[in-house]
């Protein structure tokens, strides 16, 4: 089984871009499992990963392509959560969607995508998921 961990934030555009990019990888869909991970940096209402629209949309796109999907949630630092789950599952690939930030913005706020790329030896697919 080819294991993929995909980090999904609140953006439906980025969630959809991730799912569509995965479906475009030339592979046997029956041999792939994708775990969609949403990290709640703040979750005072106690929401579940099933309630996040971007996760539901990504799941729908993947299931339409007959790809097995699992959902995971965490809280804390998103990059750390993605890397930890990828290690736990011995993932073959990590998929994230980047967003445009200025160099100053990256320094001030960090970049989940950059942290994931620099924090792993696993293959990382970075999708463009910019909202128009």
TrEMBL record:
- What Pfam families has UniProt attached to this entry? Usp
By what name is this protein known? UspA domain-containing protein
Give the species this sequence originates from.
Haloarcula mannanilytica
Q: What is the lineage of its organism?
A: Archaea, Methanobacteriati, Methanobacteriota, Stenosarchaea group, Halobacteria
Task: Specify the UspA domain's residue ranges.
Answer: 4-127
User: Can you tell me which family this protein belongs to?
Assistant: Belongs to the universal stress protein A family.
InterPro entries recorded:
Rossmann-like_a/b/a_fold (IPR014729), Universal_stress_UspA (IPR006015), UspA (IPR006016)
Which Gene3D superfamilies does the UniProt record give?
A: HUPs (3.40.50.620)
SUPFAM superfamilies, sorted = Adenine nucleotide alpha hydrolases-like
């Amino acid at each position: 089984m080819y294991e993929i961990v995909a980090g999904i934030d609140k953006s439906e555009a980025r969630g959809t871009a991730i799912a569509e990019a995965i479906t475009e990888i030339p592979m046997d869909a029956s041999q792939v499992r994708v775990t969609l991970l949403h990290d709640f940096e703040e979750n005072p209402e106690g929401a579940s990963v099933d309630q996040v629209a971007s996760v539901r949309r990504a799941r729908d796109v993947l299931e339409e392509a007959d790809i097995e999907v699992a959902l995971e949630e965490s809280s804390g630092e998103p990059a750390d959560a993605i890397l930890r789950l990828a290690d736990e599952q011995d993932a073959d690939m990590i998929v994230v969607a980047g967003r445009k930030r200025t160099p100053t913005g990256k320094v001030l706020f960090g970049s989940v995508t950059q942290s994931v790329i620099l924090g792993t030896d696993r293959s990382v697919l970075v999708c463009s998921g910019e909202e128009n």
